[in-house]
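Protocol step 4 of 6: structure prediction from sequence.
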Amino acid sequence: MKVTFLGATQTVTGSRYLVEGSGKKILIDCGLFQGYKELRLRNWAPFPINASEISAVILTHAHLDHSGYLPLLVRQGFRGKIYCTAPTFDLCKLLLPDSGYIQEEDALRANKYHYSKHDPARPLYTLADAEESLKYFRPQPFGKDIKIAEGLGFRFERNGHILGASWILLKIENRTVLFSGDIGRPHDSLLKSPVPPVEANYIIVESTYGDRRHSPTDPADQLKTIIKRTVTRGGTIVIPSFAVGRTQSLMYYLYILKNTRQITNIPVYLDSPMAIAATDLLKKYLTEHSLNKNLCAAVTNSVTYVHSVEESKKLDNNHFPKIIIAASGMATGGRVLHHIKHLGPDPKNTILFSGFQAGGTRGDRMVKGEKNIKIHGSFVPINAEILELNNISAHADYEEILAWLGHIRKPPIKAFITHGEKLAAFAMKDHIEQRLKWTCELPDYMQSVAL
């Protein structure tokens, strides 16, 4: 058996692992590279193997850094099955077409205003490509052994992080490989805790927060302080948020703050059609999160949904204090860019980032203090207060990952540390080696390892 690391090596993006065994080639996750240009260029490079040779894709969850390359894979000839959980499929039905649509729109805008170096600018893939890829999805339940071929199968186990997220135990002949995906938090406000693993011959584990602990501060308390300060100076809070997962957590905390009268009844707008649709899935999958039916309805009805572009534009011309939650979470695209462009120059306002910012993204650059950010071909001065809400993260920190791994009864032959920036990945490696006494390795991009 052989594993080739096609992405997520010393970076938090582009998760793709090629597994070869039992005469089959299986892809675990099929994500887009995001952030630094040198990473994004990998999306345009030829796929390392012929897509038609891949027998199946198994997805840990729906986020684009794990699923966003699928439309290209299908366009290049993949015709196997794409396995995932039912909530992951429903989310991919939102995320993938939206990704294709945004890329088409970005290319059209770049060609119209001539700010691309490419003539003509073209999308990585289209809405039609994304819709075509959905035909190959085959949803599966948690906790059931799924057979792909003789001597080859897998199982999904609940992983927190977002609705439908899983870790995968892949079985090939007499060996097992555990792919952690993105590990959620044990005491999340909305999602059930990750199911702990008990055994695996090899482990491929994420390290997004491998070098830090989450703040013990209650996210509601931090939100309350930020909102009160911004409202006092007459400003608006813009929250670039991940449409799936983080948005719904923010809605929950804001509902609690309002319901307990800890903040004024400030208007909250959810300006993301995809986030609105993802929020509706909470009602469909009541058994997959911790909100009962009545509380779920109260939280999802507590904000004003913004559907049209015209409604979105009006928000920027409304100078009263308000909260705008809009995708994308790292300010890489979507409606939030228009809000940052209009509201970012005013020091009365606050731009509040609610999760991990991959290196090189606009969010990362703003958090690091850049005062001029390029949006739609022009530089925008950023004078608004820039803040981070790290303790609402959907990723486990290193102590939470160690506790999750600690349930494994027998040390694996080796653990591979992936899905973390270089410092975080090295730190996670050290933590596992020192605490659990396991043999660990940090794989390189395109490295193949015989198991």
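Step 5 (inspection) to follow. The chain has a mean pLDDT of 94.
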